[in-house]
Design brief:
The structure is a single chain. The protein has 13 helices and three strands. Helix 8 packs parallel to helix 11. The chain is mainly alpha-helical. Helix content is 65%, strand content 7%. The N and C termini lie far apart (58 Å). About 2% of the residues have low confidence.
């Protein structure tokens, strides 16, 4: 049977960006998974490719770009086209990769001038920096190191634990931990408090991968795991986008005096 798999990554996974260590690491994992799927499913006529967007100009990102013109300029200068992308830029590439004309393309990472997926902290860098009276290095530590240090280092031990305990209960516990960390970030009054809260988020979210992959392995036979894994990755990307959209809406309401 022939088929097409298209995942959504980011150019950050290929080129990197200061302060986005955790984000770049996760996106590189998407690219690696896509290439592994390409090698595994290619002999069956199924191709797998990863679209790697950069920044896109949408109603979701408009408030952030308007509040921080230098942020927009930064991404325009990084683009080979010298501009932000449009939603159609990504849609056209995905449509092509899903079409029969892409049958000879497999395991590719396709950079596109398009979307921007950032966490809440990335959208409120300037306000956080002002409120906590911290500098650029501190922001970089909060965005990258503070999250990634436990997210990466705790992942292997949690994988070991996930193979020996009830995965659903472990996942529930992880959700509680990273939710508490997120709330703590909102209540942080100092850099140290914010740093510790980001560490807690990293620990909590490190539970997700081992539990989710293990549960998919339990529920589906090896030759039927490709689609569930693709849907799992798609769900995480959609959730990240919805989270960024909600954050953008809150920022816009705040700028308009909605919380005054």
């Amino acid at each position: 049977p022939a088929g097409r798999i298209v995942t959504i990554g980011s150019v950050t996974s290929a080129f990197g960006d200061a302060g986005l260590v955790a984000y770049g690491t996760s996106k590189h994992a998407v690219l690696g998974m896509t290439r592994a799927l390409a090698g595994e499913l290619g002999p069956r006529g199924v191709t797998a490719n990863c679209v790697m967007p950069s920044a896109i100009d949408t109603p979701m990102t408009a408030p952030a770009f308007a509040a921080m013109p230098e942020y927009r300029t930064h991404w325009e200068q990084k683009s080979a086209l010298g501009r932000l992308g449009q939603p159609e830029d990504i849609a056209d590439v995905i449509a092509f990769l899903l079409s029969p004309q892409s049958r000879a393309i497999n395991g590719a990472g396709v950079p596109v001038v398009s979307t921007v997926d950032r966490g809440m902290l990335a959208l409120v860098v300037d306000p956080v920096r002002r409120d906590l009276a911290i500098g650029e290095v501190d922001i970089a530590l909060l965005q990258g190191f503070a999250f990634a240090v436990f997210y990466v280092s705790v992942g292997l031990p949690l994988g070991y634990v996930a193979d020996r305990v009830n995965r659903r209960r472990l996942l529930f516990g992880g959700i509680l931990v990273w939710s508490a960390g997120t709330i703590a970030c909102g209540l942080a009054q100092t850099f140290a408090q914010m740093f510790l809260a980001r560490l807690v988020i990293g620990v909590g979210e490190a539970v997700l991968g081992p539990c989710a992959v293990g549960m998919i392995g339990e529920m589906f036979a090896p030759d039927r795991r490709g689609r569930p894994m693709a849907l799992y990755v798609l769900g995480s990307m959609v959730a990240y986008g919805l989270g960024s959209m909600a954050t953008g809406a809150v920022l816009q309401a705040g700028a308009a005096g909605g919380f005054a």
